[in-house]
Amino acid sequence: MKNKAAGHTRVNDSSHEWGGYPGKILAAGVAALILMTGSVGAQSLSGIHTDGTAFKDDRGRTLILRGVNLGGTSKIPAKTSSDPAEVSFVGRPLPLAQANEHFRRLQSWGLTFERLIVPWEAIEHTGPGVYDKAYLDYLHELVKRAGSYGIRVIIDLHQDFYSRASGGDGAPYWTLSKVGLLPDRTNEPGAPQKQPARGPGYWPPTAARLSVDTMETLFWAGDDFAPELKIDGTPVQEWLQSHYVNAMCQVAVRLHDLNNVAGYDTYNEPGSGFLGVTDLRSPEIFMMVMGHYEAPGSPAPSYWDYMQAASGFMPEKQTVPANQIWAPGAEDLWRRLGVWDVVDGKPTLLKPGYFAAVAAKKHGVNHYVGALHRRIEAAIHEISPNALIAQEASAFDGNQKELALGKPGAISEPHFYDAVPMLSKHYELDTTYPIFGNKPITGSDAVVAAYVKQIDDAKAKGQEMGHVPTWFGEVGIPYDVNGKQAYKTGDFSMLDEYARLYYAALDKTLSSYSIWCYSADNSNENGDHWNNEDYSIYSPDQRKNTNDINSGGRTLDEVVRPYPVATAGTPISIEFDSKTKVFRYKFKADKTISAETDIFLPKYQYPKGAAVTVDGGTYKLDLAHSLVQVAANSDEVTVAVTPQ
C-alpha cells in the first residue's frame, strides 16, 4: 500500500522465508516484487563471471576491471531536512541532467567498472518497510544511462560508523531511535563530521562512539549480547539485518532488468563494535589510532569512558565529556544487562569482559559477518542468480575462512590505501610509513615495493574465503594533503608523484580496482562533502576548459592508464611509464579462445595516436574506440605501445 509520503512505498512486514532464511521479510516474497518490474528470468547481468581467481567474460577472456566509486557525496542526502524521515538522496551521486557528461568522461578514461554508493538510508529513510520509490526509480535511470556508455556497476549499500545519526553514514536514523539512542549526539555536540580540534588528522570522523559500538554490536551479534532486546516483537539482530537485506533486495528487484548490473557488495568495511573487547577498560580502538597520530601522550578514551559519558557521567580521567546519548526514559541497554551499574552513587563497571565470550564460545567478528554474507548471497541470487557477491572482511579479525561462501560469483574485496597520509593529511615525497611504525620507507622503488607487498598480502589473505578473484573496492589518494598546498599553488607535481608510485604498484600486481572516488560536486574548500574527505579524481574547481572532457581531472597522468581490458589468455605483467607514455604488456595466450585481446589506449595519453609492436602476434589499432586488439600466434605475447 502507498505510504502518505509521496514517492514512497510501504511493503508490509510479515514472517516469510527468503533464500531459506526466516525473518521479517517482504510480505509476498519475490513474486510480489517482480510484479513491480517484470520477470526475473530476463536477468542476464553483465557477462562477467568468476573462474578460480580470475574474472572472465562470456568469451572466456580474462578481465581486469577498473573504475571509480560513485561517489563521495552519496553518503549525504541531496535534499536535507530537520526531520531525517523527509530527506532525499535523489541526485546522488550526480543529477541525471549531468549523467551523460560524467559517464562520457569516465568512459574516455577507461574507468568503466563502478562501485555505486547506495546508503541504506537512501532507500528506507522514512521508516521501517517504507521504501523511497522515487530514489529507486532514479537509480534505475542512472544505471541504465551508464550502460549506454559501456559502464557496469556493483551496488554497494555503503556505511561508515553505522549511520549519519552516529556521525558516519549508512543506516536510517530510526534504527537508533528504536533501541533508545538519540541521534547526532557526538562527543563535540552539534559538530558531527568536523575536523578534530587538535592535530592535522581527520579520520575516523568525530562520532558518538557509544552509539557506533552499540549499534554495530546489536547489528552483528545482538542474539549473543542482547538476547532479551526485541524491536516490534522481533529479536534486535534479526530486526536490523532483515531490514538491511530487504533494502538491498528492493534495489536488486528494481534494477534486475539492466544487464550492466554486475553484482552487490555485502557490507562496507564491517566494524567490530564491542565484539572481541576483552576488557572494557582498554582504549577504544579508533580513538587509539587517533591518539597515535594526533596527540601522542594524551590518554585515549576507553570503552568504559564512553559508556559512562553516554549516560551523563563524567569519566574519572575526563577523557570525554559527559554526553547523554540515551533518550529520556531509555536506560542504557548495557546497564540493563548488568555490564555496569551505579554503586554508592558512582558508575561502576561490573563485567569488563562481557563481550569477550558468550556461552563459553569466543567468536571473531568475521563469524558474524560471514553469517550475514551467506544470507545476502541467498537473497540476491534468488533475484539475480548470476550476480557477483563482493565480500569485505572485517579489519578486526584475521580469520577470513568464516566468509567462505562456496558459491559461484563470490569475490574478495579488500581496500588499499597508504594509511598514514589518509589518517594525517600529510604526505612526504617518495616516502611511506608502516601503519604501526615510525621508521619511514624512502625511495621510489622501495615505496612501490612496500605497496606491492601490501596489495599481495591482501590478495593472499582473501584466498582464505576460497579460490576467488580479488577486486579492490577502494583505492585512492587524498588530494588535500599538506594544508591543501596544491590548490593554493596550482602545483600538483607532488600529488602526481604520489599517484605515480601508487598506481604503478596496482599495475605490477595486475589488480582490478575502483578508485575512491569520483564526486561530481567536489570542491577545493569542502572536498567530497563528508568527514572532510577529499579523494575525488575530478573537481569542478580544477575545470578550466568546459570544452575539454579531461579538464577538472586530478593526477590524470597516473589515473588514466592503458591496461588490458580482456585477455585471451593469462596476464603476466603490466608496465606503464607515465613520463614517456611507454606501455608494455605480456600475456600467456590461450589458443582455445577465438576472441582477440583488447587493450585500452586512452586518448588522453595518446592524443596523436600510438605506435604498436607485437612480439608473438598481430594487432589492429582502433583509435575510435581507444583499443588495440591483439591476435596471438605464439604461446607468449608481448605488446609495446609508444606515443606518436
Give a verbal description of the structure.
- By secondary structure, the chain is of the alpha/beta class.
- It has 2 domains: 8-163 and 227-270 and 364-558, Alpha-Beta Barrel (TIM Barrel), CATH 3.20.20; 564-643, Immunoglobulin-like.
- The strands form 8 sheets. It has a 9-stranded parallel beta sheet, covered by helices on one side. Strands 4-5-6-23-26-29-28 form a 7-stranded antiparallel beta sheet, with no helix packed on it. A 4-stranded antiparallel beta sheet has the order 24-25-30-27.
- A hairpin with an 8-residue loop joins strand 19 and strand 20.
- The longest helix has 19 residues, at 236-254.
- The protein is globular.
- The N and C termini lie far apart (63 Å).
Number of helices: 16
Q: What integer is the average pLDDT? A: 89
Distance between the termini: 63 Å
Low-confidence stretches: 1-6, 12-44, 188-202, 290-296
What's the CATH C level of the largest domain? Alpha Beta
CATH superfamily of the largest domain: Glycosidases
Number of domains: 2
CATH architectural grouping of the largest domain = Alpha-Beta Barrel
CATH topology of the largest domain: TIM Barrel
Keywords summarizing the entry:
27% helix, TIM Barrel, 16 helices, disordered N terminus, seven-stranded antiparallel beta sheet, 644 residues, Immunoglobulin-like, nine-stranded parallel beta sheet
What is this structure's SSE topology?
Layout: E1 8-10, E2 13-18, E3 21-26, H1 29-37, E4 49-51, E5 54-56, E6 62-63, E7 66-70, H2 99-108, E8 113-117, H3 120-124, E9 130-132, H4 133-147, E10 152-156, H5 174-177, H6 209-225, E11 230-231, E12 234-235, H7 236-254, E13 261-265, H8 285-294, H9 303-310, H10 333-336, E14 340-343, E15 346-349, H11 365-383, E16 388-391, E17 410-412, E18 415-416, H12 419-424, E19 431-432, E20 441-442, H13 444-462, E21 471-475, H14 481-489, H15 493-508, E22 512-518, H16 556-559, E23 563-567, E24 569-577, E25 582-589, E26 597-600, E27 610-615, E28 617-622, E29 627-632, E30 636-643
Parallel strand pairs: 7-8, 7-22, 8-10, 10-13, 13-16, 16-17, 18-21, 21-22
Antiparallel strand pairs: 1-9, 2-3, 4-5, 5-6, 6-23, 11-12, 14-15, 19-20, 23-26, 24-25, 25-30, 26-29, 27-30, 28-29
Helix pairs in contact: 6-7, 7-11, 13-15
